[in-house]
Amino acid sequence: MRPSTNGANGRGADGQFAKGNPGGDGNPFAKHVARLRAVLFEAVTPNDLADVVKALLAQAKGGDVASIKELLQRLLGPPVELDFVERLDALEQQIATLLKRGDSC
Q1: DSSP code of 18?
Q2: Residues 6+ apart with CB under 8 A from 15
Q3: Where are the alpha helices (DSSP H) in 1-105?
Q4: Which is nearest to 10 in space by CA: 2, 24, 21?
Q5: Cα–Cα distance between 74 and 68 in angstroms, integer?
Q6: What tens digit of pLDDT does each residue of 60-81 get?
Q7: What is the pLDDT of residue 68?
Q8: Residues 71, 61 contacting (CB under 8 angstroms)
Q9: Contact by Cβ (8 Å): 37, 30
Q10: How many CB atoms lie within 10 A of CB 51?
Q11: I need a surface site. Which of 39, 56, 75, 98 has the fewest CB within 10 A?
Q12: Taking the model in full, what pTM does it have?
């Protein structure tokens, strides 16, 4: 099924936004969040942040599992599911096989 043409949804035949599309209203809370974030940045100094990180590290070293998880996720990112890695490896092998045979991907 093809996307609808420029009509009520403002998209072209290819599904992309059509020329002249005004876009949406945006996030109604963006300005409020920006003000709150500015207050936070003004209140927290680099030394404050360093103290918080040191406290988190101390809790992690003490065996606090939640602190360990938080620290590792902040440093390394969320864990990758093994199934995803296996599927990616299988896909790469399929592509390599196709390329060896001269097939196009």
Answers
A1: P
A2: 2, 3
A3: 30-43, 46-61, 65-76, 82-101
A4: 21
A5: 10
A6: 999 999 999 999 999 999 877 7
A7: 96
A8: no
A9: no
A10: 11
A11: 75
A12: 0.52
